[in-house]
Design brief:
Blueprint (H helix, E strand, L loop, with lengths): L2 E11 L5 E11 L3 E5 L6 H8 L7 E6 L2 E2 L4 H5 L2 E4 L11 H11 L6 H10 L15 H13 L5 E5 L7 H16 L3 E5 L3 H7 L2 E6 L2 E7 H8 L2 E7 L16 E3 L4 E6 L8 H10 L4 E8 L2 H9 L15
Parallel strand pairs: 3-8, 3-9, 6-7, 7-8
Antiparallel strand pairs: 1-2, 1-4, 4-5, 9-10, 11-13, 11-14, 12-13
Helix pairs in contact: 3-5
């Protein structure tokens, strides 16, 4: 598929010398969902703000649907919907007027039916005549989402869209994301809810310290970097791992009541058969065995902490 958003060597250095973005390059395909993960201060919001033209890049280039986001700002920005982290709404304006005005800002003709459809999807239709100041925090977040969708963008940025909101809104939001993707809308989201990224994203990007560590298909990332663990539960706890089991690099867990073995599912041999034989030879009696696979959160924590990042993962598919 064609790239609808192309970012090349994007850098942002603030007046004090802080380098928020360090040569980020990224291509995003039309119709995909990209989850951008990173700790606080990683550069996620700066990247989004720069692409949207809110922040001016120190150097680099951004193309949105073929339009330069500086030289052809209006055309580029019209393709983008943005749901920011902060709730910035006119408190005395009515919900319906706020959303309709946002559509007009992008040169779209009035379309009451479209505005009604957006408000209904976000459970805001009954609040259409309410002032923003009368709404709860969760309802205000819904209004932000409605504003971002009002002009029918081809790209939607969701910057921590469900942070601090109710479970109902989170479910509504992801239902809308599924519908938008089906309609060909490209979605880039940042989130601290890594399980959400794991559930809905096509690709995952990891950014930290202003650098993009990798961008990779979610399934490929988890297959390449994920590990499985085998927990060998014992009938009686032990104080230490027998020396005859040292080669397996086991961990003693559950107060000595279990042995934890980590292995790579891609290896030619997992070593499980040998391990279980050696455990029996050491005189330990098994009560049960359980396995678990690394989650996206496990992989993410390992990457940003500097553990387990393969040398060829720094650029990944980002260039």
């Amino acid at each position: 598929m064609a790239s609808i958003l192309s970012i090349r060597d994007l850098r942002k250095v603030y007046d004090g010398g802080f380098e928020a973005l360090k040569g980020v390059s990224l291509d995003i395909e039309e119709g995909e969902i990209l989850a951008l993960l990173g700790p606080n201060g990683a550069g996620k919001t700066t990247l989004i703000s720069t692409v949207c033209g809110i922040t001016t890049a120190t150097s680099g280039h951004v193309s949105v649907g073929g339009f330069d986001n500086v030289a052809e700002f209006r055309a580029a920005r019209a393709l983008i919907g943005l749901v920011p982290q902060e709730i910035t709404l006119e408190p005395f304006a009515k919900v319906h007027d706020t959303v309709s005005f946002s559509r007009g800002l992008f040169g779209k003709p009035a379309d009451p039916a479209r505005i009604e459809a957006v408000l209904r999807k976000l459970s805001l239709w009954d609040k259409r005549d309410a002032k923003i100041m009368e709404l709860s925090g969760g309802m205000k977040r819904r209004v932000l989402i409605a504003k971002a969708l009002a002009h029918d963008p081809r790209i939607l940025f969701l910057d921590e869209p469900t942070a601090g909101v109710d479970v109902e809104l989170r479910k509504d939001m992801w239902a809308i994301v599924d519908e938008l993707k089906a309609g060909g809308v490209t979605i880039i989201l940042t989130t601290h809810y890594i399980e959400e990224a794991e559930a809905i994203a096509d690709r995952v990007g990891v950014i930290t310290g202003g650098e993009l560590l990798l961008v990779e298909a979610k399934e490929q990332l988890m297959a390449r970097m994920g590990q499985k663990q085998l927990e060998v539960q014992l009938t009686a706890p032990v104080d230490a791992i027998p020396e005859t089991l040292a080669q397996h690099e086991l961990q003693l867990v559950n107060g000595g009541g279990a042995l934890l073995y980590t292995y790579d599912t891609r290896a030619e041999r997992t070593g499980i058969t040998t391990l279980l034989n050696d455990v029996a030879q050491a005189g330990l009696v098994l009560a049960d065995v359980q396995t678990r696979e690394s989650s996206l959160e496990d992989i993410f924590v390992g990457l940003v902490s500097g553990d387990g990042t393969p040398a060829d993962a720094v650029q990944g598919d980002a260039a």
